[in-house]
Write a structure and sequence with these properties.
The complex is a heterodimer of chains A (240) and B (220). Chain A has 240 residues and is mostly helical. Chain A has helices at residues 18-36, 38-58, 68-87, 90-98, 101-107, 110-140, 147-172, 178-204, 213-238, and strands spanning 2-3, 9-10. Chain A is built from 9 helices and 2 strands; from the N terminus they run E-E-H-H-H-H-H-H-H-H-H. In chain A, helix 2 packs parallel to helix 6. The longest helix of chain B has 41 residues, at 178-218. Chain A binds chain B through residues 164, 167-168, 171-172, 174-177, 181, 184-185, 187-189, 191-193, 195-196, 199, 214, 218, 222, 225-226, 229-230, 233, 236-237, 240, and chain B through 61, 113, 116-117, 119-120, 123-124, 127-129, 132-133, 136-137, 139-141, 143-145, 147-148, 151-152, 154-156, 158-159.
């Protein structure tokens, strides 16, 4: 506090913005994740195991050339979605298990908590995709005609995955039977996104003109809507 | 009581009439078009119930009145029942006209999605022990799920084309003759009446159960 010229005292508060709180939570989660590597290990091991199983049983020549764009898109997204579902709930479940939920409730505003957890989940998904997608392309001989469209589909699809599951993770952290519940609750919400992402990846691998862009837009719209609705609903399930 | 008796008479009249009085629609093999009087009303009631459940959930989240949650829960359960009936009747119609019980027609895809969403809704309800939290989560989940429905409407038709009859059996279309239309609307009213009756029973049941539980707990 310091006096102004008129002699009155004004209070100067250090106001933190939503974004700075969210970034603080994100960095803290990243640091704790870096120490234990629990979520990232479980997601990556799940993904690698399924990738190896798929690649071993199908290989790069078993499927006919004309069938590849569609079937490879299906396989890739099944691997991505189910590995994401196996680990993304950690972001909230670990708070519950460590007993830090209440302190988190006190120290940041609900929307900031949601954004921080969303950033963390998106980071996990980025790591997952950066490792699994190139490995899948190499192992399966996946020919992509339009790399730009394909990359955009992966980015928006990942955004949608994170956006659709973060609020569900916050709910199941406070419920019983967490592991099974997370997949059961997330899957119906993600189905429109998965259908879109499969279609978009298939079209990016086709020889016709890049027809996958509408799918990219749909996935982006899905992500934006889910994030907006989650931001509105999150305070309801966070505060008591 | 009087409501129940009237409803019984009305439904029996409609059922008898659609089999004995109304002629089957042209363009469909044999008697299959009569499914119109049973399939469409169940689908309509399912839609109505899910919409009502969503609205009641929102009301609960705003006002925190327990009655709104009872309404949301009962409505979702009945909607699930009617949605299941619509799936089964639609599947029988699909076998009779398209040759297979299930072929992932866009209509079938979206109805399965609905069943999955509300299946998950009940799983969530049963997994949260705390009453207050359970109601809150159920409301939040049903709103979240409702937001994904528009995507199904736009996304699924992009994948495949539908074989579902729209024009020949659409009541807004003049292709339906007046006798069929009257009994179709009669059947729609009957099913809606049945839904309202079941809904009131279910809400009453939940309210009594809640009161009993509270009384039981206050004994200790």
């Amino acid at each position: 506090m310091h006096p102004t010229k008129s002699g009155r005292w004004i209070t100067q508060t250090v106001s933190s913005t939503y974004l700075s709180e969210a970034v603080a939570i994100w960095l803290r989660d990243l640091r704790s994740e870096f120490r234990t590597r629990y979520a990232v290990n479980s997601i990556l091991m799940f993904a690698l195991t399924t990738l190896v199983a798929v690649s071993f049983s199908i290989g790069s020549f078993r499927i006919e050339e004309s069938e590849r764009p569609f079937l490879y898109a299906v396989l890739l997204w099944i691997i991505l979605v189910f590995s994401a579902l196996s680990g993304l709930s950690r972001s909230f479940v670990k708070e519950q298990e460590a007993g830090t939920m209440d302190i988190l409730k006190l120290s940041a505003r609900p929307q900031a908590v949601f954004l921080g957890k969303l950033f963390f989940n998106l980071t996990m998904l980025a790591v997952l995709e950066l490792i699994i997608v190139p490995a899948f392309i190499l192992l399966m001989g996946y020919k992509i005609i339009f790399p730009g469209c394909f990359v955009a589909m992966m980015v928006t699809g990942g955004l949608g995955l994170g956006a659709g599951t973060t609020l569900v993770a916050a709910m199941i952290a406070q419920a019983n039977a967490r592991g099974a519940l997370f997949s059961a609750l997330s899957f119906p919400l993600l189905l429109p996104l998965i259908i879109t992402a499969i279609k978009g990846s298939e079209r990016a691998a086709y020889g016709i003109s890049a027809a996958g862009w509408p799918e990219v837009k749909i996935a982006a719209a899905y992500a934006v809507i889910m994030i907006t609705v989650s931001l509105l609903l999150f305070p309801l399930i966070w505060e008591e | 009581m009087i409501y129940k008796i009237l409803l019984t008479i009305w439904m029996n009249l409609i059922i008898a009439a659609v089999f004995l009085y109304v002629e089957p629609a042209a363009g469909f093999p044999g008697e299959v078009s009569r499914i119109l009087f049973f399939h469409v009303p169940t689908a309509w009631v399912a839609t109505l119930a899910f919409l009502l459940s969503m609205i009641a959930s929102s009301v609960y989240l705003i006002t925190r009145k327990v009655n709104a949650d009872f309404l949301a829960q009962s409505s979702a359960e009945l909607g699930f029942l009617f949605c299941f009936l619509a799936t089964v009747t639609g599947s029988i119609f699909a076998k009779a006209t398209w040759g297979s019980f299930w072929n992932w027609d866009p209509r079938q895809t979206s109805i399965v999605m609905l069943l999955m969403i509300y299946g998950a809704y009940f799983v969530l309800r049963s997994a949260v022990p705390d009453h207050e939290k359970r109601r809150m989560f159920a409301g939040v989940y049903s709103i979240l799920a409702f937001c994904t429905v528009p995507f199904l409407v736009f996304v699924v038709p992009r994948i495949t084309t539908s074989l579902h009859p729209e024009d020949t059996l659409n009541p807004a279309n003049p292709g339906m003759d007046i006798k069929t239309l009257i009994f179709f609307l009669g059947s729609l009213c009957a099913y809606t009446g049945l839904f309202v009756w079941m809904l009131r029973l279910k809400v009453r049941m939940l309210r009594i159960m809640d009161r009993e539980q509270r009384a039981f707990r206050s004994n200790f």
